Amino acid sequence: MRDNCLYIVVPCYNEEDALPETAKQLLEKLMFLIKSGKISKDSRIMFVNDGSKDKTWDLIADYHKECKYFTGINLSRNRGHQNALLAGLLTAEKYADMIVSMDADLQDDINAVDEMVDKYLEGCDIVYGVRKDRSTDSFFKRFTAEAFYRLMNWMGANTVFNHADYRLMSKRAVSALGEFKEVNLFLRGIVTMIGFRTDSVYYERGKRIAGESKYPLKKMLSFAFEGITSFSTKPIRMITALGFGVFFISIIMLIYALISYFTGNAVAGWASMVASVWAIGGLMLLSIGIVGEYIGKLYMETKARPRFIIDEILDDERHI
Question: What's the pTM?
Fold first, then answer.
């Protein structure tokens, strides 16, 4: 066992513009922590190439050749940020005592790593990096982000407000994470389910150092939907409730239609048409909701496709 060995896991997708500065700053931070005696000399920076179409992997391979503190994982194809992050975490767990995950754009303040390590040394297994505020965001981004966290918590996912994927996890916390077999990943929700001793550090989020954001509005909406459907069957239950509501209204409409018919205030055929449309619509929604309850549970339990496939690993001890 390596005492206080830290791996910094950084998922990368088309990050050739940002990677040179990211590698430089992360190496400086790693060296500072090693010299301060907080982490061991076996600590490493692990870049995970998520099927990039540019020269990201070539840069990672060059960094590994030039400096032993850089390691890399090349996935067989693009699997998305969450799967790339998980691949890095589960691979680093074999070597590290603690693992920090962060994005390649360095918008998350790397100086928060110092405090994360301190809290790990104090006994914490999971340390969340949490933004102090969103004052630098546009109104639209701030509103949608805060709405997203509130919606997720209402849906049943116990997420940490203003926390993304910047966190420290101990070896045993990552090992516990590996016990979760979901294919459709939403790590922000899964990590909070692990338990163990947790804490948070707060930081100011900066601007992207280079390149463009890999999460435009379309991807953010898709990510939010992924999180909701991975952690909650409330949408299905809402459909069931809607079905009951519509069916109840159909009964009221039927009574109203019959009263109109017998009082002579209805056009011939109108009562039967209105009643049948409302009744059939309500019954269809109710049926879909009931069937959906079972499909939702099967969906949650039977996903078993591989979450990622590693093509190549660059490490001092392992090169395949």
Answer: 0.73
